[in-house]
Write a structure and sequence with these properties.
This protein is mainly alpha-helical. It has helices at about 1-25, 35-40, 50-60, 70-95, 105-120, 120-130, 135-155, 155-170, 180-190, 200-215, 220-225, 235-245, 260-275, 280-295, 295-315, 325-345, 355-360, 360-365, 375-385, 400-415, 430-440, 450-460, 470-485, 535, 545-550, 555-565, 570-585, 590-600, 605-620, 625-640; strands at about 395, 420-425, 490-495, 505-510, 515-520.
Length: about 650
């Protein structure tokens, strides 16, 4: 029996590992991928809540020294997810043993099938092939549930001690584990209420919990050494508490109106369908009912996890919320396995349990393409952003999806170390201003007075004390304007064209994927050949809404550069930019119209005719006006014929 169980696990692991390897990202990605790879490689401090456990374990994988560096942490995610699936196999076995004490082949097959279904669910697959903290969160959550159910069955205190230690460690990766507290405590107390009468045991369990939580000592100890990425500067208790509690993210929590929450709940069910396809969900519903009727304590344990996870995640207003729902997806897979178990109990033949393995084929088919990350779209984008800037210049970015991968490229891949990269939104935080002053004293020598004035005004706000909002905003604008206007020995670029109250009189010249801030309207050349567009031109890559939004910077900036060149009468260069823009956005009306006009001015009437004819085909409502233009172009072509 042991050999057959190991054989099944090995086969499952090989299948999943192969699928993950085929879809594994070879480079940096959006959201926190670049930042997390950077803190793992350099032992820095990540964004709140700091993720010390992830940072330290990720550092071990960075010692592999595979290039590019982010590939080390991508592989880390892959291995963590494989371990999660092995743990999930044992979790399903523990769940099924509550319904039948026999450790038969049916239970093992169901556990393998459930692990495969989870492996190829949409969001779990996604976190397994890119750098993020959620693969470690999932491993710890599944392991904790498996250990707790094992303790429930055996009553061995060593399992409970291990549970409390790992629970403390899990807090050191992601604080969403706190949402499981009601469920964990319910299962513990409903299993053995006499624990509350054993003070020495309770003290021992608390000490093991604290031992796990001690991983957070990494934050102040490492912060004291001032690493390059030292988010929140958690050296003292005040900074440490703000960082660990996610103080700056509270503005996005529990402030949504009922209508918006209902809309998000609807989106959750769409997301749930995308995880497993509609075909699998009836089995989960059947398992839900069967679980409720047969094992009420287990049902209450699972429903507490499910409901608390959904309530919290629906009330957290961030764009990358999908991975927060993973605990609820895991519960759904448990119910799905119970649904198949119920059906298989009607038959004496264990082969019916293979239904769970067959069901895994559906999410494999539907989720393979959305999770095909073997591209370098984000890496190429960050290279193009950095290469758009002149030597020794400053780039102020207002999009984390630009800043995080660009900072990674600069710090870990050595690209454009001459540039100063600034995150516009982070400039509202004291730790970041102090970081800039400490690491780039010469760059900010002229603006140090305004920066320190802003820090002083910011102090009461960060301490939760009364502050003057108008004065704080004014000092913020004074600081940013000083950095831009008083440091013109270094050219300044931005990823945005305007911000209220900031450098309004400056000319914003589109240059590459950036805007050069200038006090004149002179011509600043930018070789179109500098763009690396191999990955962007490959339309076979799957692009979700977020990556499409981020990559829309290409046609936008190319089109603006064409308009800039047109105003300077550099018509041939403008034409080249418009033609490239239309490769990416072939139905863009403004670009088509501008290309048609430039062709006319260059005397390229035949080419202009084709462009306006294309407009008439795409936009029927414009045919009447376009018809007159086409007739005029026909006459001009006839006039120039020999």
């Amino acid at each position: 029996m042991f050999k057959s169980r190991i054989t099944g696990l090995v086969i499952m692991t090989i299948i999943v590992a192969a699928a993950y390897a085929i879809t594994l990202s070879p480079s940096v990605n959006l959201i926190d991928s670049g930042e997390l790879a950077l803190v793992c490689k350099t032992l820095g401090i990540a964004h709140p809540t700091g993720y010390p456990l992830y940072t330290l374990t990720g550092r071990i994988f960075c010692l592999l020294n595979i290039n590019p560096p982010v590939l080390n942490t991508n592989i880390f995610s892959l291995i963590l997810s494989l371990l999660s699936l092995v743990a999930f196999y044992f979790l399903i076995c523990e769940v099924l043993r509550l319904f039948s004490a026999k450790r038969d082949a049916r239970n093992r097959i169901l556990a393998l099938g459930g692990s495969l279904i989870l492996a190829f669910s949409q969001t779990f697959w996604q976190i397994s092939v890119t750098t993020e903290v959620y693969a470690l969160s999932s491993f710890l959550f599944i392991t904790l549930c498996a250990i707790l159910l094992n303790w429930k069955r055996t009553g061995e205190i060593r399992h409970l001690i291990l549970f409390f230690f790992l629970w403390g460690l899990a807090f050191g990766n992601h604080l969403n584990i706190i949402l499981c507290t009601p469920a964990f405590l319910f299962l513990i107390l409903s299993t053995d209420i006499t624990l509350i009468k054993k003070p020495w045991l309770l003290i021992s369990l608390a000490l093991f919990l604290l031992a796990g939580l001690s991983i957070y000592l990494y934050l102040p100890l490492r912060s004291a050494h001032e690493p390059f990425m030292n988010w929140g500067n958690p050296q003292n208790w005040e900074n440490f508490f703000r960082h660990v509690s996610g103080w700056q993210y509270r503005v996005w929590m529990f402030n949504q109106p009922i209508k918006e929450l209902l809309n998000r709940l609807g989106n959750y069910f769409i997301l749930l369908k995308n995880q497993f396809t509609l075909i699998l969900l009836p089995f989960a519903l059947l398992g839900f009912i069967y679980n409720c009727l047969k094992k009420l304590k287990l049902f209450l344990f699972l429903i507490l996890i499910f409901v608390s996870n959904i309530i919290y995640s629906l009330n957290y207003d961030i764009p990358d919320i999908d991975p927060y729902f993973i605990p609820s997806f895991i519960v759904v897979v448990i119910w799905l396995c119970l649904g198949v178990y119920f059906i298989s109990s009607w038959f004496k033949n264990n082969l019916i349990a293979l239904l769970s393995v067959i069901l895994a084929l559906f999410p494999i088919y539907s989720n393979y393409r959305p999770n095909q990350h073997r591209h370098n779209l984000v890496g190429e984008l960050s290279v193009n952003i950095l290469e758009s800037a002149a030597p020794r210049s400053t780039i102020i970015m207002d999009n984390w999806d630009y800043y995080s991968p660009s900072l990674y490229k600069q710090q870990l891949e050595g690209l454009r170390g001459d540039l100063l990269l600034i995150d516009f939104e982070l400039m509202r935080r004291s730790w970041y201003i102090k970081h800039l002053l400490a690491y780039y004293p010469e760059r900010f020598k002229i603006s140090s007075r305004q920066m320190n004035s802003f820090l002083k005004a910011l102090e009461p706000f960060e301490k939760g004390e009364k502050y003057n909002a108008i004065d704080l905003q004014k000092k913020f604008h004074d600081m940013v304007n000083s950095i831009v206007l008083e440091n013109f020995n270094n050219t300044v670029y931005t990823t945005f064209k305007s911000k209220e109250g900031l450098f309004q009189e400056m000319v914003k010249i589109p240059e590459g994927l950036l805007y050069r801030l200038s006090d004149d309207s002179l011509y600043y050349p930018f070789p179109l050949e500098k763009f690396r567009l191999k990955e962007f031109k490959d339309q076979s890559y799957y692009r979700d809404d977020r990556i499409r939004s981020v990559l829309s910077i290409y046609p936008k900036m190319l089109g603006e550069r064409a308009s800039y060149l047109y105003k300077l009468k550099k018509l041939n260069r403008a034409r080249s930019y418009l033609e490239l823009t239309l490769q990416f956005d072939p139905e863009n009306l403004i670009s088509l119209q501008n290309l048609g006009v430039i062709n006319v001015e260059l005397g390229l009437y035949k080419e202009a005719y084709r462009v306006f004819q294309r407009i008439a085909e795409l936009y029927p409502e414009k045919r009447e006006g376009i018809g007159l233009i086409l007739e005029d172009l026909r006459k001009k072509q006839q006039n120039i014929q020999p």
